[in-house]
Design brief:
InterPro entries: MCP, MCP_dom_sf, MCP_transmembrane. The chain has 12 helices and no strands. By secondary structure, the chain is mostly helical. It has a single domain, classed as Mitochondrial carrier fold, CATH 1.50.40.10.
Length: 324
């Protein structure tokens, strides 16, 4: 691992600038680093994600009404068991690996290409934002079915015995289209989320890590800030996505909605009719608390593996070439 430089120090000769490594990194390196980062991002903070899903319920069971994240976790563990907040983690891990592998690999390649066009290879906030949008389309195409299953298993009194039972039941009763019912809403949420996310991260890196060395502290702080800002801004869309994914029967029945709720516009109308503007911000505390450390973990792990794997590859190539 390279040494961490101070603000006024120049990179040591032969040590290599960290951000000069990615252009030499293979697609496999980006995908491997992205997959590891994605799995860790979703698993470490998963219990808080479970709480967020429940707190976004439009008409929760009286036994599942919580005033804070801490209270929710304490009550879930006390009344439903220690492992209940982890329900649905298996499908999340299965989806997060390939989804984030595509996500980071696409982001790096598109960012590099657009930066060459827009800024002659320099850092461009427009390129960062657009690259994040393109990467999101691929990520959500893989992750959306996993999100549907995950959120159904996270809900209070979920009727599904296990992962396979949930998948089979959804397929038999609602059809395969149910796994992508919220895809348009997911994209409508995640495209601005990721645009703000990547632009904030790169902006923070310019301030905290101008030499672009491998610097874990700056990656953690930049990731946390990016996660908090983008999560808060897109909470209304996340509430609508949760409603489309869970098809909350009690809430829909009370609004005299029969069948399955589809479409972002219908979800927006339903949420507003149920609780006004305040309903769009249900679970915002849990969402921000989840996203800040999750995004910090994702970026710090991704940057470490990108650095480590690229360094190993370059050292291997130098060893193969032998002394000049």
């Amino acid at each position: 691992m390279s040494e961490i430089k101070g603000k006024d120090e120049e990179p040591l000769e032969g040590d290599g600038d960290y951000e000069s490594l990615p252009p030499h990194a293979s697609l496999t390196i980006h995908m491997t680093a992205g997959a590891v980062a994605g799995i860790l991002e979703h698993t470490v903070m998963y219990p808080v994600d479970s709480v967020k899903t429940r707190m976004q319920s439009l008409q929760p069971d009286p036994k599942a009404q919580y005033s804070s994240v801490y209270e929710a976790l304490r009550r879930i563990i006390q009344t439903e068991g220690l492992l209940r907040p982890l329900r649905g983690l298996n499908i999340t891990m299965l989806g997060a690996g390939p989804a984030h592998a595509l996500y980071f690999a696409c982001y790096e390649r598109v960012k590099c290409t657009l930066s060459e066009v827009i800024q002659n290879g320099g850092n461009s906030h427009i390129a960062n934002g657009l690259a994040g949008c393109v990467a999101t389309v691929l990520h959500d195409a893989v992750m959306n079915p996993a999100e549907v299953v995950k959120q159904r298993m996270q809900m209070y009194n979920s009727p599904y015995r296990n992962l396979l039972d949930c998948v089979r039941t959804i397929r038999h009763t609602e059809g395969l289209a149910a796994f992508y019912r919220s895809y348009s809403t997911q994209l409508a949420m995640n495209i601005p989320f990721q645009a703000v996310h990547f632009m904030t991260y790169e902006l923070m890196q310019e301030r905290l890590n101008p030499h672009r060395q491998y610097h874990p502290g700056s990656h953690i702080l930049s990731g946390a800030a990016a996660g908090a800002v983008s999560a808060a801004i897109t909470t209304p869309l996340d509430v609508c996505k949760t409603l489309l994914n869970t098809q909350e029967n009690v809430a829909l029945s009370s609004m005299h909605i029969s069948g399955h709720l589809t479409g972002m516009a219908n979800a927006f109308r339903t949420v507003y009719r149920f609780g006004g503007m305040a309903a769009f911000f249900k679970g915002i505390q849990a969402r921000v608390i989840y996203q800040m450390p999750s995004t910090a973990i994702a970026w710090s792990v991704y940057e470490f593996f990108k650095y480590f794997l690229t360094k190993q590859q370059m050292e291997g190539e130098a060893g193969t070439a032998g002394p000049v």
